[in-house]
Description:
With 120 residues, the chain is mostly helical.
Amino acid sequence: MSKATGYTGTAKSLHWLILALLIVQFVVAWTMLDIKRDTKPDTLINLHLSAGILILFFVVVRLAWRATHGEPAPLDGVPPWQVQSARLVPLHRGYDSFIGPGQQLLWGKRGPFWNGLSQL
């Protein structure tokens, strides 16, 4: 079985769809009021939560796609250290996509395990 020479159209579409949803998420988050425990959900809060659920869904779909289709072969001449470091990026994305938001949901921004890496 030969390695693909590039990412599939589906993988690229999922990538850009997730990016568009993240932009919506950040714009809505910046325009929202402070959220406290007794804050009643309004349009912006509901939009923020809906975008987050959609992001989570499409990230899971993207991970499933990647698991079943693999990654393309690196380009000729790319140093091995760059190939290895490129494989570490999904680990940070995993934190940003699952662990960080999960901590925020459970404990809020100042929870016991919040380290602020996602805010860099």
